Amino acid sequence: MSDHYDLFLAVDLPPDLPEPVLLELRWLLGEGEMPPELKSTDWESWGGPWQAFGGGSASHSFDGADVSLLVRAVGRSNPDGSEPWALTVRACVHEDDFGVTMDVVGWLLRFATTQGWVGFVRDSALGQIQHLVRHEDGFDLVDVRPVGQHKRVPWSSW
Question: How many percent of the chain have pLDDT more than 70?
Answer without folding.
Answer: 90
